[in-house]
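Lab notebook, bench 4. We co-purified these components, and the gel suggests they stay together. Before we commit to crystallization screens, I want a quick structural picture of the whole thing.
Request: model the full complex, all chains together.
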Amino acid sequence: MSTPTPPLPRWADLILLPIINLFAAFFICGLIVLAIGENPIEALGVMIKGAFVYSGGLGYTLFYTTNYIFTGLAVALAFHCMMFNIGGEGQALIGGLGAALASFGLGVYLPAPLAIPLAVLGAFIAGGIWGVIPGYLQAKRGSHIVITTIMFNFLAASLMVYLLAGPMLEAGQQSPQTARLAESTLLPKMADMLRPLGINITSSPLNASFLIALGAMAVFYVLVWHTRLGFNIRSVGQNQEAAHYAGINVARTIIITMAISGGFAGLLATNEILGFNHKVVLNFTAGYGFTGIAVALMGRNHPIGIFLAALLFGALTQGGGELDFEFQSITREMVLLIQGMIILFSGALAYMFNPPLARMIAKFVAPKDPANG
Amino acid sequence: MADFLYQLLLSFDATLRIATPLMLCAMAGIFSERSGIVDISLEGKLLSGAFVAATVAALTGSAWLGLGCAMLAGIFMSLIHGFACITHKGDQVVSGVAINILASGLTIVLGIALFKRGGQTPSLPREDRFTPIEWWGVDMMDSVPVLGTIYRQLISGHNMLVYVALLAVPLTAFILYRSRFGLRLRAVGEVPEAVDSAGISVTWLRYRALIVGGALCGIAGAYLSIAQGGNFVREMSAGKGYIALAAVIFGNWKPLSAFMACLMFGFLEAATTRLEGVALPLIGEVPTQLMLAMPYVLTVLLLAGFIGKPRPPAAIGKPYHK
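Here is the predicted assembly.
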């Protein structure tokens, strides 16, 4: 690397590099499938069919996509402020608690048009509280956000086990779960919403929460690039000291960022709890919070990118389930492996392919050196 | 009273068993973090070690070979971490998350492919595990009133890896504070520029720290699957790597303090199983979850500066650019 690396063109950085990283991740996973003695191409085919082709497959894919959008946005917002929120898991769990409390507490007395927004707000606020405490501790007490959010994941899990197996346990139930939430706070299924409009789609868990996710993407975009708060967030993320001297209250910005970030993660409960399970169960977050990191990294912290990455992971999750039926020795856990590889290549090794790629492109694109021209 | 003391002794005994993997992982974390590399991948290395140990022991019938391969597996995962965040200067936390998820997926995928038991490995016969070692003179000591019981229950009768963990602590302290390698390791975690300008390779030092850590996590994994237990169960590390990380922080990145933290966290867990459903005087019944969550609560409080003042290595988390 003695010769200076030419800068990578923007299109290559935004499109080519992520594709190469993705390809590398799939390639390694393919080798592992091959080593196990199955055909990786065939496995990929099964996953694609399961995710998009089979009846209802797409609905499931978009259902999972919804989860990934929420956690992806949560991680991405914190990234804009240079905060690493790996507490999405815990924030989403507590979001479920918030949705349930709003549903049991107020939802019972109200009609759906009032009750649903309240339950959604409950999820957002509860997730926000679980994000804002680590944010406060980072901003005011200097505790490292990564460690605190990891600890808060475990605290959330402990709290939920205690509540679901104790005070909030449905009477007569053995497994830890709450009673069914108030009917007026449940989100309608997408298939039921589209039927009156004359559109018939196969019934799947896909529900109105998908629309909330699209809305959250829009809010994210406006918030980060078109508001004063967003400007402050990005300034603090770029350079805390410069932001401080420019008169931005750094601590306050960090705290607000973590509150909203936690809120986004909390919204996952609208999909899993209000839209699908209809009661709070244990471990409904199933690793979505961690995968949100991969979604944000691949999506380059931009809503459009996050949507595409969430769709990819949604398809992987749904398609991975199909592996169980079609193969003897590979199962849905293959997806965990793919996720890990994607985080490794597009996150930790994000720039491994950068210098060679840049040199290659520089060779092909005509040099604009005035001395030679 | 005698009964209470006996119960307490049994709790200490359980504490030691629970704390063993924590101690090994915490020492691994200290090596890595003192060299300036954030290590949230302890969990993944522990899990990989447990899987490889049980798999190799099941296939070859040798616990020793299992232990050796578990150490290699831990080192391999460490090298991925190093390749990403030392060689390519990637984000250390992202790399750690990737390794944890990779380990989760890989152990299950390979376990199912190899043994077709839903991710578990076959149960090992007793002779293929590390079994408790009875120390010399246990029966003779039995006649001595208190000491005899302590000798039998607490000091004797553990498997070899428990003693390895207990040795790892003073050894880590010795290497860190009394050897040339340790001095350089601490320096590279504080001011890598100084180490570099003295003509010592920052890269190689950090790689060595990670390799030592990987081997230690491998031993901890082997303890879980072929010493304490008799086979690998999916996700059997169950957050122990994170508790060890908490112990590192709680111990202010110092071997002996981290060791104390491991014992404390271990005792909390041991006490939890004994106190389940028991009403204590004055407080009443303590929820199990609260007891199990104590390591996390304490670490959060410590980090926030409410108990003492944490002092992490100055260069931690920052890739070194020449």
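Chain A has a mean pLDDT of 91. Worth comparing against the SEC data before the next meeting. Chain A touches chain B through 49 residues (CB under 8 Å).
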